Amino acid sequence: xxxxxxxxxxxxxxxxxxxxxPTKFLALPxxxxxxxxxDSTSTTNDDAVSKxxxxxxxxxxxxxxxxxxxxxxxxxKDKAKEDAIVAKQAAVDAICVLPEKxxxxxxxxxxxxxxxHDAFMVRLYSEKPETIEKWTAGKTMQLSMxxxxxKKAGSLxxxxxxxxxxxxxxxxxxxxxxxxxxxxxxxxGTPPEPAPK
Length: 197
Hints:
- By secondary structure, the chain is mainly alpha-helical.
- The protein has a domain at 96-188.
- It is 75% helix and 0% strand.
- It contains six helices and no strands.
- Helix 5 (156-168) packs antiparallel against helix 6.
- The radius of gyration is 46 Å and the shape is elongated.
């Protein structure tokens, strides 16, 4: 075998001119080129994949941060609302106490609640003329309901508490009128008897 060709192969003129290198050495540049090319493509693909993954992680981290910030903001708002409710109830509890002197008769005590209710509305809503107008127009009926509820409670202590609380209430709890009435009833009223089973 001469120059890497079989013995029975015809001799071609170009075969004699070709250097005597083994075929495996001729294939080496192609293998190296292919290997470098594959590595280059693989590295490029790996870089693209890792960049995409990094970008996705950054986006996820930013999303998680926004969600955490919104959750913290919502929790802070909820806490502020709860604190405001607790503070208002504490202010209501502070004024819903018995005065030093209790009235002797329920009718007189309920009339004092009615007078205190009217004074409460006028004092705390004086900066809102439209509210005072509505109050003045409907106060006769509202105050008669206040007296009726007072008499229904049937307690001098409840009536005295309500009249005292309405007189002491400040602007910070002007919207807590139902809570004032309810708190006095809960503190000093007779609990209703349970329904028969």
